[in-house]
Design goal:
The protein has about 500 residues and is α+β, with helices and mostly antiparallel strands. It has 16 helices and 24 strands. Helix 13 crosses helix 14. The radius of gyration is 23 Å and the shape is globular. The chain starts with a strand and ends in a 14-residue tail after the last helix.
């Protein structure tokens, strides 16, 4: 059989593997669901052995035999940035603390920001400290679980954990490291040794590689457990959203990925990194590249919420009803802050708002207004990217929300820009397969991996409608922010509306 490559992605609620040829043709796909552990409010964890490794073994058992001895390289991505403390042999010492959905390190974020200064952190690391950052989570571990910290010799993420199991190498890719704020110098592409020594004293940080670099080769012991060939090259891998960007050829300055998922994720490759307080500035996937990225707190989560609310309706029927409603939902505007909002307002106490309701509006209007709300949010994010000096030249839409065409059409109409729809929408594991092909010397990093299947183009005649409603959208949050916070405090068990923040804008 011809040379084949294997890509595996460890996600929040499932893991996926894809076996592909060097020309991008898919041979086989395997997927395994798993559970997210939420042991306390604000905590989100995975057991690395029971989830990351077990899923990887199951996918290998499914896909490796189908390679027929022709497997040439492997790459793994995963959720991140995560913090998995391990001993000197790479054995986990506790469950992994996950990315920004785990908010346990609020105190440490405030302390480190005060210690180093927000402007200095942003300039040196590219991103302000938040629940997404690894540095505060290491500080949390030192303070709250000193017995675990005393034994911690390695910092691992899903991709580096699998690499360590397969090859024995203790490495991390530059992109993942650049999300370990404030431990990485974004301008020098290296660890910030001085701050690392203060935040995580005594911890030897992993050697740094680029995602498509060979981290090591499968050992005999690992081959016996996984069924992979001894000596198989293993690439360093990276964080899932950036592997997904690679999967749809978002690699050149001005390329933007819009990921329509439970949340809306936006990643833009930039020619030069200009840190912005509302964005994540990171190292790119390939040497010499950088990205600006951010995400909304909800997207597909809104449509799922509404579908559950109108029990018995299918997505197909809701989309059909929404498509029959005029653009602008006959004067309905929604703020999609149903779970707070990340970018660009960064307000966990923001709340959803439906404005303009009348007795004439039905569920098709509401469903369309929810789709339009996410599009307004994307427009706000792209304007923030432009403020940071980025210039989008090409938009690529990926994810489950691209199916059916209505949502992508609404986004293009509101942005006034076309979106490319790729031939393959498998996700991060498909990008991993491409990184594996580069690592194995089967393809050049500059080649196109995923052809464009369709282009969604904006309708010129609706620009005035959406421009008007977008101005309403932008005005609603500052006009209602104080009231939102009163209600958020009330919902969280704090003071009620009469005793909390003033109820005037």
């Amino acid at each position: 059989m011809d040379d084949l490559v294997l890509g595996v992605d460890i996600g929040t609620s499932s893991s996926k593997g894809v076996l592909a040829r060097p020309d991008g043709a898919v041979v086989a796909i395997s997927e395994r669901p798993h559970r997210l552990s939420l042991p306390r409010p604000g905590w989100a964890e995975h057991d690395a052995d029971a989830v990351w490794w077990a899923d990887f073994l199951a996918i290998c058992a499914d896909l490796a035999p189908r390679a027929g001895g022709g497997l040439a390289a492997l790459c793994v991505s995963g959720i991140g940035p995560c913090m998995l403390p391990a001993d000197g042999a790479g054995r986990p010492l506790r469950p992994a603390v996950l990315y920004g959905i785990d908010t346990r390190s609020t105190r440490e974020i405030a302390e480190l920001t005060e210690r180093y200064g927000a402007e200095t952190i942003l300039e040196r690391g590219g991103t302000l400290l938040s629940a997404q950052a690894v540095g505060p989570k290491l500080a949390w571990l030192r303070r709250n679980e000193p017995e675990v910290w005393a034994r911690t010799a390695q910092l691992l993420m899903p991709n580096s954990f699998i690499v360590q199991r397969l090859t024995g190498a203790y490495v991390l890719d530059h992109h993942s490291a650049s999300q370990c704020d404030p431990l990485y110098d974004i301008h020098q592409n290296r660890w910030n040794d001085a701050w690392a020594a203060e935040i995580a004293p005594g911890l030897r940080l992993p050697s740094l590689l680029w995602p498509s670099d060979i981290a090591g080769r499968v050992t005999a012991d690992a081959a016996a457990v996984t069924g992979l060939p001894i000596g198989l090259p293993v690439a360093a891998g990276t964080i899932d959203a950036w592997a997904e960007a690679v999967s749809v050829d978002v690699r050149e300055p001005g390329d933007v990925m819009l990921m329509y998922g439970t949340t809306m994720m936006v990643v833009e490759v930039v020619d030069r990194l200009r840190p912005h307080p509302g964005l994540w500035g990171t190292a790119g996937v390939f040497p010499g590249t950088s990205t600006l990225a951010t995400g909304m707190a909800t997207s597909g989560a809104l449509t799922a919420w509404f579908k559950d609310l109108v029990d018995g309706s299918s997505f197909e029927s809701l989309v059909s009803e929404a498509a029959a409603v005029p653009r602008g939902a006959e004067g309905l505007v929604v703020l999609p802050y149903f779970a707070g909002e990340r970018a660009p307002i960064d307000d966990p106490r923001a709340r959803g708002l439906i404005c303009g309701l009348t007795l004439r509006h039905g569920r098709g209007h509401l469903y369309r207004a929810l789709l339009e709300a996410t599009a307004y949010g994307v427009r706000h994010i792209l304007e923030t990217l432009r403020d940071a000096g980025a210039v989008e030249r090409r938009l690529v839409a990926v994810g489950g929300g691209t199916r059916g065409g209505l949502w992508t059409q609404i986004v293009s109409d509101i942005l006034g820009q076309p979106q490319e729809i790729p031939r393959q929408s498998i996700g991060a594991s498909y990008g991993d397969a491409f990184l594996a092909a580069i690592a194995g010397g089967l393809v050049d990093a500059g080649r196109r991996w995923n052809d464009v299947a369709a282009v969604t183009r904006p309708s010129d005649e609706v620009a005035d409608v959406y421009d008007t409603l977008y101005r309403v959208y932008r005005a609603l949050y500052p006009a209602t922010r104080k009231q939102m916070h009163v209600l958020a405090n009330f919902q969280l068990g704090g003071a009620g509306p009469a005793t909390s923040e003033p109820a005037t804008a």
